[in-house]
Design a protein that fits this description.
By secondary structure, the protein is an alpha+beta fold. The chain has helices at about 5-15, 60-65, 75-80, 95-115, 150-165, 170-195, 230-250, 265-270, and strands at about 120, 140, 145-150, 200-210, 215-225, 225-230, 255-260.
């Protein structure tokens, strides 16, 4: 049996046919109100190149939805200050909170989708933000045949970015503060690439900050003719994040959280019906 077919079987074993009949909107999209009943990874028809689609009309409103992703010195300075906590009580930082929460919701959905193929280990956070959803540190993902040490990859990349900031004239204090910003954007980038490697197509928005750091924001996650949209990412991501928090709270702080491949609770969240009243 080929590796691609083995992966297909794994996915089908996790996300099987839901109890309610799947319905598609006129754009053939699966929204938060629909079931992703036929999700599987690409096998023989696996996409070899991952090209971004032309920007959609709603991308023109990107700056309104995520104001801190624009390339202005003012926002870049805010990012340096935000990690110190001095601006969290300012109503003007609502845009940052919305952006950070969406980053966390993306991470949660990425973890959920990857858990259909891999066992995933998450670090127990030393502290938890009371302002935004907690963003986790993924330590590693693995199968019986493969181990990807995410924490080691991240450590190398963050050190590289720190050294580049210092070389470009940043103070040690500023370079250290920026590590939190990089920690989030770089891990999302790694998880997106892992999803692409196993067959998912991600339509994303890429931005580059004043200091050259790139951010990639997922707008849609696609498989074949099915699309998981932004609303799906927000709602399912929030629920998955909540589930992971509960699990972390149930284990000692000295322990890491292991999400086994094919986790049934996570699979149920991915394929559940409408969340709206």
């Amino acid at each position: 049996m080929t590796e691609a077919k083995e992966v297909n079987i794994q996915i089908m074993n996790v996300i099987d046919a839901p109890t309610e009949q799947q319905s598609l909107n006129e754009n053939n999209q699966i929204t938060a109100n629909h079931h992703p009943e036929n999700v599987m990874l690409l096998g023989e028809n696996q996409v070899e190149e991952h090209q971004m689609e032309p920007p959609q009309p709603d991308e023109q409103r990107h700056s309104e939805e995520h104001p801190l992703e624009e390339h202005h010195e003012e926002e870049d300075d805010k990012l340096d200050l935000l990690t110190s906590g001095s601006l969290f009580d300012d109503p003007k930082t609502a845009g940052f909170r919305k952006t950070r929460n969406y980053q966390t919701e993306q991470q949660s959905v990425f973890i959920a989708l990857l858990s259909m193929v891999y066992t995933i280990v998450i670090d127990h956070p030393r502290k938890r933000s009371k302002i935004t959803l907690p963003f986790f540190n993924v330590i590693r993902i693995s199968t019986e045949k493969e181990v990807v040490e995410i924490k080691e990859i991240m450590s190398t990349k963050l050190q590289q970015l720190h050294d580049e900031d210092i070389a470009h004239g940043c103070s040690e204090k500023t370079a250290t503060r920026r590590q939190e910003v990089y920690r989030v954007s770089e891990q999302l980038h790694i998880l997106m690439n892992l999803l692409r490697d196993v067959g998912f197509e991600i339509e994303s928005k890429k931005t580059t900050g004043n200091k050259g750091n790139q951010k990639e924001t997922a707008r849609k996650i696609k498989y074949n003719n099915f699309t998981f949209d932004k609303e799906f990412i927000e709602e399912r991501g929030n629920l998955i994040n909540e589930l992971l928090i509960k699990r972390l709270e149930s284990i000692p702080k000295s322990s890491d959280l292991s999400i086994e491949c094919g986790d049934s609770e996570i699979a149920n969240i991915l394929k559940m019906g409408s969340l709206k009243n």
